[in-house]
Amino acid sequence: MDSSMSLRDDFGVNVWTQRAGISLGFLLLLAIFPIPAQADMALPRDHHFSWKAGQWDQCVGEECGSGGFQTRTLWCVHAEGWTTHHSHCSPRDRPETRRPCFKVCGWHQDLFEWDVSEWGACVLVPFFSNELKLRTECVTAQHGIQRRKVHCVRTTNRTAVSLRICEFFSQKPAVEQACLIPCPQDCIVSDFTSWSSCSRTCGAGLQYRTRHVLATPMYGGAHCPNLTETRTCNHALDCPAGEDEHQYSLKVGAWSECRLPHDKDSLLSGRTSVDFTSFQENNTVLQHPQAHPKHPRLHPPQHPLSRYPMSWELEVGYRTRQVRCTRSDGKNVMLSLCSQTRPPLTFQSCIMPGHCLVSDWSSWTPCSKTCRSADLSPGFRLRTRTMTQIPVGGGNQCPALEEKEACNILGDLLAHCPRFVWRSTDWGECRISPLLSQQDKRLANISALCGAGIQTRKTYCIQIPDDSAPHHRKEVSRPVSAKLCAAEEPPSAVQSCSLPCQHHCLLSPWSDWGPCLYDNCRVPQGKKGEEVSISECEDAPPPTEVPCERACPGDCVVGSWSPWSPCSHSCASKSAEGRQSRTRPVLALPGKEGKACPAASALEEWRMCNDHPCLVFYWDESPWGPCIPDTSMNLNGSSFWNGTSACAIGVQIRKATCMKINSGQVVNKRCPDSARPETVRPCLLPCKKDCVVTPFSEWTPCPASCVPENGSVAAQSRYRTIIQRPSNGGQECPDTLYEERECEALPVCPVYRWRTHKWHSCSIVPDSVRRGLAGPGEFCGDGLETRGVSCIGESGEAANMTLCLLWAGPLPPQTRGCRVPCKDDCSFTTWSKFTECSGCGTFRARTRTLTGRSKKKEQCADETLNPLEETEACPCDELLSQPFGNWSECLLPNPPIRGQQQQRWRSPRQAKGCGQGLRVRAVSCVDQSGRPVDPTLCTETGFTVELCIVPCPLDCKLSDWSAWSACSASCGSGVKLRSKWLREKAFNGGRPCPKLDLKNQVYEAVPCHSECSQYEWRIEPWSICTINSVSDGPLCGEGVQSRKIRCVKLEAHSSELNTVEDSLCDQEDMPPRAQVCSLSCPQDCVLSLWGPWTNCLQCDQNNTRTRSRHVLRLPANEKWPCPDLIQSEPCVQNSTCFTYEFKVSDWSTCQLSENALCGQGSKVRRVDCLRGDGKMVELHKCEQFVLLNNWTLSESCEVDCPVSCVLSDWSPWAECSHSCGSKGQSLRARRILQKAHEEGRPCPGLLTQTRPCPIKPCYDWVLSDWSPCIVEGAECGEGIRRRGLSCLVHLGDWPGTTAQTTHSDLCGDAIRRAVQQEMEQPCFVPCPGDCHLTEWSTWSSCQLTCVEGRSFESSGRQARSRAVVIQVTENQASCPHQLFETQPCNGGKCHSYQWRTGAWSNNQRAVWCQRSDGVNVTGGCYQQKRPTTMRHCHPPCTKPFSHCTPSGVCGCERGYTEVMSSHGFLDYCTRTPGVDSYKKADVKTNSGRLKPGPAQAQDVFTEWTLRPVGPDGRVKIWVYAVIVVGFILILFIIALSFLLCTPSHSSKTAAPQKPLSLAYDGDMDM
Length: 1566
Fold this sequence. Notes:
Layout: E1 5-6, H1 13-32, E2 49-53, E3 65-71, E4 74-78, E5 83-84, E6 98-103, E7 112-116, E8 123-124, E9 141-147, E10 150-154, E11 160-161, H2 163-169, E12 176-182, E13 188-190, E14 204-210, E15 213-215, E16 228-234, E17 248-252, E18 272-274, E19 285-287, E20 311-312, E21 316-320, E22 323-327, E23 332-333, E24 347-351, E25 357-358, E26 379-384, E27 387-389, E28 402-407, E29 419-424, H3 438-443, E30 451-456, E31 459-464, E32 479-480, E33 494-499, E34 557-558, E35 578-583, E36 586-588, E37 604-609, E38 617-621, E39 628-629, E40 639-641, E41 645-646, E42 649-653, E43 656-660, E44 664-665, E45 680-684, E46 692-693, E47 715-719, E48 722-724, E49 738-742, E50 753-756, H4 767-771, E51 781-786, E52 789-792, E53 798-799, H5 801-807, E54 815-820, E55 843-847, H6 858-861, E56 869-873, E57 880-884, E58 915-926, E59 943-950, E60 957-958, E61 972-984, E62 1001-1010, E63 1015-1019, E64 1026-1027, E65 1037-1042, E66 1045-1049, E67 1058-1060, E68 1074-1079, E69 1086-1087, E70 1104-1108, E71 1111-1113, E72 1126-1130, E73 1140-1144, E74 1159-1164, ...
């Protein structure tokens, strides 16, 4: 049992094992360490009371050592378990309660420990005595137990001591544990084969059939049954009279071992003869004892240098065999009874055996595990030895030539394995051009682009020697192969970036000034603030009253000053200067005594404005230049960049040029120096960045083996990677990033060749041997020729044979057959020369003729035996080539090699992905026989190549932007649009189109503003009030004043106003041209102008608005009243009262900077003030009504960048997937560095490319099938089966297709290959009558040992067997035993077995066992569950016309009904009325009772007859149901009859009716 399983179940196995372990441990302790002690359980005085001892206490004592003692407690117990007084137990059997012991101290713990062995095999455990009966069926597994040895040993020398010492420190480990053994598995065999033919063609003979073993018995299962079944067979045709009942066959034995001829005095030594004295079933072969020791097999004897011979010589010996004539009953008879044309061959030449010799073991290779890794797997190391002598003549095969062993299993002393991680170079510069489409690249100014872009970097793999190594900011570890970092995802090689754009700030017009608020008393300028107490201000408060002048009655009243008029000039010059004026009107004339009005000049004021001189000359400055070093300024080594690089102070310079307005540049002295701008300013120079490169990688390995003499020189290379590019004047990168050199001079492969010696003469069996054996006595016949082989070097010197085995190629043959002609042999002339060849595909021939007396011999004239002509195909060097397979994909040239500096920093856009390429197709090269040969013999490269085109991707093309549309709002703010429409869709993986609308267009929207009217009324100031009076009095009272109005056209980009016709302006908004004015008389009350109207709270008739004015001069007479100072009017909607609201336009599209393609931007919208009547008014109108403008007019947005897919370079072409054949392919791959985003060019689906490899022929050794057993010169007996070794050439798809044989040298050394295989096997051809074994059956399917359908072993088993064939019954006693064998296998299955049954037929059915895979077997199914094959009725069916039904109860035949007894059994069969039974038998006779049962169809019919009683004798349920239904039906009929028969209670009697008689007259309607 290889495997076991621990188990704790409910049957008490755990308790049993524990008790058994204690007992076993105690007995083992007594056996090893004899300790004087008595038994714990003493024999009782009678059968009721006995002593019971407790556990020993710990060992106590004053000192550590052997002076301690232990105590324990005793009880006297009754057999029922209760405790009683000690007097009831026998004092004579009282166990001791104190014993000496060894006191163990704490420091002893380091001196002793438990020594535990491995668990032993799981063995079966007998059932417990309390079980009533044996279990007849194993469900899952059998109970078993495992044991192990436990000792307490000293840690110093591992010697055993008492167990109690270790028990003081820790509990004793368990010595037993429960385990499981799978259920017994019986031998499982297949079904029998069909019967063989009869052993004789006449008379009585034997037939046999066999079966084979599918699974061998295991775990105590039943043994295999007999695999053969025999039966006699008789032919109706008797054997002819006079024919012997026995057959005779010539039978040969096995060849003896090859030996050298002996001297004449020992001719009989080693001879064999046949003993015919006894005719028992076993023949006796006598072997004459040899008079001297056996000769050694190797000649000459080995000497110390024979292990490394300089040449090989073979010796020819002879071998013999027995020949006898055997009868069909197994008896040996005289040879003369066996008819034969030639005497049997009893001797033969042979090669003396030579054993394989090998060299000494080489040194161990270094361990493959050189560092400590996380998987804790061990390493291994190898050593080899070479063959120095090839085995010949059946000598011993070579032992293993390679040995492998584990090393550095734990690896605790090894350093940690280096880790490999990804590193990356610095990010390259931010570039926007990769985001452009093909169309945009032709139109855009690449240098002016700004906004979002992408930047790339390179990734490479480095080795980190140790985790504790410090990590610097710029780690420059040596790069290694990227395959070492394949377990981790490389860092991103592409990221987004941004180039700053020059943002032109767009400002709205200035808003109106807000109210002036004071924050500080000292600050005259007002600021927004809040009111505080007067005490907060330190200075005196401003005056609350100021003096003013008020006109007295009769004084002249003057109005307020008007605003200043616009300045007449923007600047002052010699000929003109700016002036502006303001006026005030006379509101009332003075009286006679009143204050006179000011003079006319006092009513108008003028002042100078824009008095600064007009600039004819001005300074024009250029933009600031770049920051350049300035040696006069530095920061004394101050560092400004990350605390590591010292950055200097530089200067920026710009030019200041004196310019003349509308003229150009003039000399600088014409411009004032005071206004000259700065031309030099300090700046901070960017820090210098030196180039940073990795160290060179390791040199690629050179070939480890030698090179051929004319071979090319191998090279090795290394590279390094730029991590950081130089900038700002830093140190430049080195020019050499890739180095290549030739490998050091490798040794030229040594040249050795075989040297063959002359063939020796033909060696046949010596005459001295022939005379001692039966057979032809003439010294002639077949023999062997041998020749020696030696090894020579390039210069012809002798060399060790081992060197030729390594370097000289196939070993030449050393033997060949030969023949010494006998006198009766046919003689021929020598073969003629072959005829000339006429070309490829033709044949050539050679001939020979018979000579001498051979011409008259009939057997010599038979050309089938002795051909006189030979033909062979003519050699042909013509080869045929033809394309093979499909064309590869169109392959573009590989990128430049790593040695080119630009390659390491080449932008992904520079990688050529389309254009002209090549596609290749493999070429198959075959000879005239159709055998594949090296393709380079037909073509230089093994390929045919043609140009191809990889179509370039075409991006989506849109039209140019259309013109801007009109503003969406005719009055106020809106948006205007422009669009692009689709011109061409994307092809071949080009950039897709942006999201288009249903019209295949894309739009851009920007805010716009439309004036509500292009025409506006412009007014001039009112004229002086003109009084129309004819009196001579003063000019006062009412008058008229006028003003000019005009309609002007508003120009968006011009400040000039062009007057147009008045009809173009809104006539409803036309201001009045004249109005009534008033010039107060001297005595009148003078009032100011009306103030503005107050705001209406709500626009309805209940609300009013007011305006007011104040008195400027009181009237002359106080009794004269002044006009009203306050005027009011109702608030009328859209007349005197208006509502206002904000109106916002739609959002514009995301607006970027002028030269940006994507990235951060903003979207805007505009807000307008809408009056209640639908007119747009100034924005401050809404603000006057305290409307909060909470609309967001600008939001940040982002335009996703159309990032195209970025791919890595193609990897180098990998090695071919197959070293030969037509299925080889080489692969290269690339990976995605950046996936496509938005409208970027998508990634191609092709990330790998393959190309065919050259079709090199594959050469394989193939062993043919074993030949049938060949018995040379006899009909039966010991023979040999052989198989051939041939070299096949194919294209890699063999054995799926046919392969052709070719010269063996192409596959290697045929002789060395043959000695590694078993080319011959002894076999046996049975003679008629021999009892023999069949051939081995095929291996059965792999089967696992399973518990409940699950296996607990990693490998399964498969079996095969040989059955015994008996041809003659007389030879049964000498038959061999049947054989079977098993072998481990992988990939097995768990099988289950189940009984299967066939259909019943005459109370019989077939029962067989079937495996879960559908195979019918014998064994595997539990016999206790086997279904019955026959069914019987109990008691037997002895009643007349009865028979046993399929349900196992007695039934009646057809035409009879069962009558059951009260016990449920058949009482008798009664005839069914109306049924004519075809069976007529006398019920009183035996013939009627024992009549055969009815047919199967009748049984079925009988099964469906109505039987009131079931097979168990009980009345069936339907009988009760019928009774109940019948009872209810009877009650219903009675009730119905009662209702129909009851007479009517009516007082009147109905008139009698005549009976109605119906007569059918043949009418169809009836």
